[in-house]
Amino acid sequence: MEEVNQSMKLYSHPMSSCSRRVRLALNLKGIKYELINITSTADSELLKINPMGYVPALVDGTIAVSDSYAILLYLEEKYPQHALLPQDLVKKSINYQVASIVSSSIQPLQNLVLVNYMGEIVGPDEKLPWAQYHIRKGLVALEKLLVNYAGKYATGDKIYLSDLYLAPQLDNAINRFKLDMTEFPLLLKLHKTYSDTPSFQQILAETDKSVSAFIKLPED
Ligand SMILES: N[C@@H](CCC(=O)N[C@@H](CS)C(=O)NCC(=O)O)C(=O)O
Asked: Which domain of life is it from (predicted)?
């Protein structure tokens, strides 16, 4: 059943993988919301909700929640339709692990603010190798972790939390950071599945040239 919530607002950015996780969950759960695209982490409206100035941040009526993980847990409890976690404890723990690897060991190390800072202190040509190094390290672990669990999606034939984290991260790896994916056949297969999944397609296809141009690629 489609949930219509006129008072739900998501502060987001089209290229933000953290925002995309939440947008994918809202789509899956059939929750309507107002999308507010933020162009600066100094946006005063965003800072009132999230003093970090990062997206995503969610306002649901009188409740404000920031950070994709907190938002996803909140949504899961309040809107249980299309559960984001499987019942099976082992598969559930794999979902937690994937979410944790992406959100704490990959994304923060390739976040715009850090990559640009590395460019300033070490040199602009170091931005891309830095991001690729950390993304690759995480993907090596994820490819091994999922080999015994993947079906059509990361932990079986249904979309769960791990897919919400993986789909935007793989898109970043492939389309933004141009990582060579030859050593990740399983993750490449999942990326293809996500690109073919209607509820994922539009969100993954959005691009913002001003953001993708922030790194100097070798062929530039
Ligand atoms: N742990 C936070 C991380 C939030 C975060 O890093 N957001 C990024 C976009 S994915 C951001 O706002 N970056 C702005 C910048 O780097 O300047 C979450 O999962 O929401």
From this structure: Eukaryota
pLDDT, one tens digit per residue, over 142-171 is 999 999 999 999 999 999 999 999 999 999
Instruction: Determine the atom of ligand 1 nearest the C-alpha atom of 67.
Output: 20
Q: What is the token pair recorded at 58?
A: 């969610």
Spelled out in words, what is the top-level CATH class assigned to the domain 8-78? alpha beta
For a ligand 1 pocket test, name from 13, 16, 54, 106 the mutation site with the most ligand atoms within 8 angstroms of its C-beta. 54
The pTM (predicted TM-score) of the whole model is: 0.93
Substitution candidate for ligand 1 out of 23, 24, 52, 111 with most atoms within 8 A of CB: 111
Q: 178: alpha, beta or left, given left = phi > 0 and alpha = psi -120 to 50?
A: left
Q: Which residue has the tokens 């769960």?
A: 160
